[in-house]
Amino acid sequence: ETASTKPKSLPPRLRFDFRQPDSKSLKLFIYTTYLTLTTENIFVHIENSKKISILVFIDGFVHTIAIELFELVTNDITVHISTNSRGQIEIDLKKQNDQIWKTIGKFASNHLSVCPVQDFEPIYFMATLIKRSPVTHDSDWYTFSLPSNIFMLPPIGYHIRLRQSKDGILIVKPYTVVDKLNSEQNLSSDQTIELLIKHYTDRTMTPMLQKLNIGDTIEMSSFEGTFDYTKINTCKTLILVAAGTGLTPMFRIINYVIKQTENQVDMNVILLFFNKTQDDILCGEELQTISKQNKVIVHDILSRPGPEWTGETGYIRGELLHRLLPSISSTTNVTETLVCVCGPTPFSKLAIDLLKEHGYNDNCLHLFLA
Ligand code: NAD
Which CATH number fits domain 15-119: 1.10.260.40, 3.40.718.10, 2.60.40.790, 1.20.1540.10? Predict the structure, then answer.
């Protein structure tokens, strides 16, 4: 979300078409006018080989294509963005039977509907836990594999939800999709989802997650979010203000920035990372490595420091921002700055107020909310 959410009018519906190039295949076409569309903007679900739902995330809105197909298809889903025609999505499907269909099938009632991302009810499917490894004393790295009837490569800064029922009540929690810091791993190369999850013994979801065995399944949702990572391309100063697990949206942002700087893109990156204790700092070693390589300036600020801590202490406050952030007059321009904020709600609210006092405005502030 941007710091101030202004209601926007609904964009026009997308156009849809299909073709059967031969008796075995089906091509679906979705026409948008969105020039920077990538496969990350698209989610595909094939239900029982018969119903296809395609979600297209454009500019804060979700467009749905939903069809009860004429006959069965396989789970083989190929998504292309056509390079010769701007913003055209092409989805290739394989039919189970070798025959030309008389029609595509029946359009569902929500076919070609459009809805703001924050009002959209996501699609759930079963994901399998394939790996879990510790990160700190109370957080683990989880790797889930996606079933073959799903296509999804969540965009930078987007989250999914995990859902489980306990005593007949549905428990739902959002988690930002992460990447290992400074890794070569390319999220789009495989159908897995990485999550960094802090366990809270006094809550419901994480004790259930800790009980999952490798190979167990859990309900996962299609992705959600509003962050536009292309804003990073045009900024000269990137300020990341994170508290606790609020670091998670910053992971893929940092990886993206490192790639940009390797491509000689000149960018000033500052991370202010607020935690209770030194043991709570997520991926501290990785952040130190990145910081030593001068890729990101990292400031750790502890609210409950041990006696050995010589670094910054306390909560976020004006004086701290004044000291650790470039003053607005010395940065070239506010329009060339992007400030991302994520953490517990009281922290985020305070951070946004203080950053505004410091001179940043809604145009350059992005607040991650789930
Ligand atoms: P935490 O309790 O360990 O606190 C981390 C730091 O936040 C503290 O050291 C302190 O500096 C600051 N803080 C906490 N309460 C504050 C207050 N009242 N005023 C000012 N500063 C305060 O944090 P945690 O347990 O890791 O929680 C992280 C939070 O981030 C969760 O609530 C989670 O939902 C949220 N989060 C949101 C997203 C998203 O929206 N996309 C992603 C990840 C995490």
Answer: 2.60.40.790
